[in-house]
Specification:
Length: about 230
């Protein structure tokens, strides 16, 4: 049994990650800004009272992150999934808002790396751990054929760059790092016309995480196992 910490679990991909890992028999620390108000999370806790822990976390708030660290204590964490993300309300040329762009960067890039800093010793103590960063193909410069989406694209491209650095810096500590593209998923962010459902996306990403080799640390990989160009 492994311990997995997941951010942004109140809905969508984070919730499905939580559900599937619990079904697999793992221990999950599921975080959300208001877990007490997340009905589906609460239902999961009733079904898995011994293996699911709910913790309040606003990934953008240093005090909230520190409170989480204190709650986790010296528990070993085998897998950290930085799932919490934000699309932003201002993404198109001519309508870009500086403060909103900063918020997108804070949530999508800065906060995930701060989470790794925060829980580094917990990951090291696992002996062999993994950090999964939920990225997006929209952060691929090579794949950008339609333009637009400035704030979101740039934040995910920056996250990918940080993932590569993490992979290099944490290699000696036996921590693997992967940037994951979940696919175009039917969530609140992806919309109803997306190509796959959350169950398919998470099943695929769990397979990628489980099979990740040290030589793949720092790679950008799709939910279907394909390597995505930077």
């Amino acid at each position: 049994m492994k311990t997995i910490l997941i951010t942004g679990t109140n809905r969508g991909l984070g919730l499905e990650f939580t559900r599937q890992y619990l079904q697999e028999g793992q221990r999950v620390i599921a975080t959300a800004r208001q877990p007490e108000a997340a009905a589906e999370l609460q239902a999961l806790r009733e079904s898995y009272p011994d293996t699911l822990t709910l913790q309040a976390l606003d990934v953008t708030d240093p005090e909230s992150r520190e409170a989480l660290s204190e709650a986790v204590g010296d528990r070993v964490i085998h897998l950290l999934i930085n799932n919490a993300g934000y699309y932003g309300a201002s993404n198109e040329l001519g309508k870009l808002d500086q403060d909103e762009w900063g918020k997108v960067f804070l949530i999508n890039c800065i906060a995930p790396i701060k989470m790794v800093e925060l829980l580094r010793s917990n990951l090291v103590n696992a002996g062999s751990a993994t950090v999964a960063l939920l990225s997006s193909k929209m952060g691929s410069i090579a794949d950008n054929g339609s333009g637009g989406k400035y704030a979101y694209r740039s934040s995910k491209a920056a996250l990918n760059a940080a993932a590569k650095s993490l992979a290099i810096d944490l290699a000696t500590e036996q921590i693997k790092v992967v940037a994951l593209h979940p696919g175009w998923v039917q969530t609140d962010m992806g919309g109803p016309n997306a190509l796959i459902d959350a169950k398919t996306s998470i099943t695929g990403m769990r397979k990628v995480i489980a099979g990740l080799k040290a030589s793949q640390s720092g790679d950008f990989i799709g939910y279907d196992g394909t390597l995505i160009p930077w």
